[in-house]
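Reopening this one. Same input as before:
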Amino acid sequence: MTSEPATVDTPLKKLVGERTAKALASHLDLHTAGDLIYHFPRRYDERGEHTDIRSLDVGEQVTVLAQVQRTAVRPMRQRRGNLLEVTVGDDSGGVLTLTFFGNQAWRERELRPGRWGLFAGKVTEFRGKRQLNGPEYVLLGEGGDGEAAANEEVEEFAGALIPVYPAAAAVPTWVIARCVRVVLDTFTPPDDPLPATVRASRNLVGIGAALREIHRPTSKEELYKARRRLKWDEAFAVQLTLVQRKHRAAAWPAKARPAKPGGLLDAFDARLPYELTSGQQAVGREIAADLATAHPMHRLLQGEVGSGKTVVALRAMLQVVDAGGQAALLAPTEVLAAQHHRGMLDLLGPLAQAGELGAADDATRVELVTGSLGAAARRRALAEVAEGRAGIVLGTHALLYEGVDFDDLGLVVVDEQHRFGVEQRDALRAKAEQPPHVLVMTATPIPRTVAMTVYGDLETSTLSQLPQGRSPIASHVVPAAEKPAFLDRAWRRLREEVAKGHQAYVVCPRIGEGPASDEEAPREDDNGRRPPLAVTEVAPLLAEGPLHGLRIGVLHGRLPADEKDAVMRSFAAGDLDVLVATTVVEVGVNVPNATVMIVLDADRFGVSQLHQLRGRVGRGSAAGLCLLVTEAMEGSAARERLDAVASTTDGFKLAELDLEQRREGDVLGATQSGRRSHLRLLSLLRDTDLIRDARAEAITLVEEDPELARHPALAASVAALVDEERAEYLEKG
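Same output, byte for byte:
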């Protein structure tokens, strides 16, 4: 170990020793002094302060600050030796049992009632009680008597603010605290990258003070200042990246695709069987104006399930076809791509029959390109696309492959953008000679600060009105474990709807045997829960049991494409009463006669996913009903999440709830790249004002210095916080 000054680039093995450095690297991906200094505490504990033990989730790896209340030793039943049970808690009433196996009398002497400590381990449940089995712990000293004294790093904080770090079982929080102390003792902070004018105008502390106070706060006030400065750095880096991207994109050339009076679009509007909502008309005008400019449109269209985004997108595609170009729509599943194809052919009628008898004069062709097309059909479709006869091309990621060439690609529409990786979207854009116009659609409502932070280089349009004729959807939680009779009633309710001539979905989180796919909920569970229910197992049980006599179909992603299409057509035609499916029905599937959805193991799905799923019912004149079946117990986090979904159909409220319950850094593409998130402190929900201020400063700075040439330290800091891969993710939306 060295006593030389440490910089952000100093390897940890020089500072904390090879063995500890290896553990930090392998378990927490921390390699340098900078990595460790930017590994911020998750929270700060104080003795006597309430630790909400009752809110701990089974299976969670936790560190709690608690006081020993009592100990008990009893012989083990299955083997020789004693079991030590230690009850810890605080004045709030929440308690946790620590269990130690084997003869460990010394622990009983050490863990005396009244002692405070940090206890780390995995939460399990035994006979209704939360417990940690054989946890790691460190006790806080009692005035220097030396007995079982805590590490001096923790001792220093006892009675003050004790940092609790994101940790691993092999590297508990107090080991991290000790390493941070060692590094801070010799650490030379980098030159402050933030321009002095910004620091002064926004009243921000210097970077050196912020990095010290975040780890070893001298007071709550100083800690607040440190966190605010470091949050600012994160927000500013992201906003600078987005504002720079937007600035550069404004200079890109693109072929203008102005509206053509008397063309396909006008003919389509004339044959529409219903009137567009005022929202659809307003958004349509925004998109039409974008398409008419010589710079590429880059617009996000968000709207509630069923708000009519597809018609808006189709009108944009027709404007591009009128202007001599082609439009491609990228859908996340073959089921959805095929449904878009059928729906657009129905809406366009003779306008989509170029080359056929009875076609309109200005007609084009609408081609479907998926991975399951036969060789002859594929050759024909690709020729239509390459020679420009197909003005509208629909498909899955099969559109991205080599061999799919466009004559003049003018518009790319990405449906349900969150289903696509960055490279996939970019591969489609690369098929145009000049950057095409891009319309990104999502039915997952996006909170304002997320839109500002993730889609800050896109113009945003929102459809909030539902078309006339859409019916309300009632949602209820069915607590199957507590009240089995409620589940029986759910199946009877489904049969009642079928008796009225309606149809129903039953959704399961898993397909069945075989490798897991993207549409499935994770099946592994270390906490003793049974595997999630599977479509291939549930369907026959329903056919033999509560849904006996009904016409039941099965749909999931592992079926051959022609079989999937046949099942979907049968359901849409009313030849099936019930469709037992995975989340393959989550987006875009439109069967107005379906009025009931029963989601099994609903707690295995995310909030936004459940909101999307229930949007499949209530699409006609009859009211929709969504029943969320769960074994999650009342008061648990999973149950509260389902209660929230059942309580509102406001997608924006649910999107905020979803964001609260996820790692917020995921929205910056951590899940895309599999790397650690760079949003460590910034909350997209709680730091709205700070994000807005950071964006304003970023706009001012980029207008003065587009490439940050006069601020090299800031440019380097932005590159470190938002690396190139993540910047690309932000840029591509």
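So the earlier flakiness isn't reproducible anymore. For the record, The first helix runs from residue 13 to 16.
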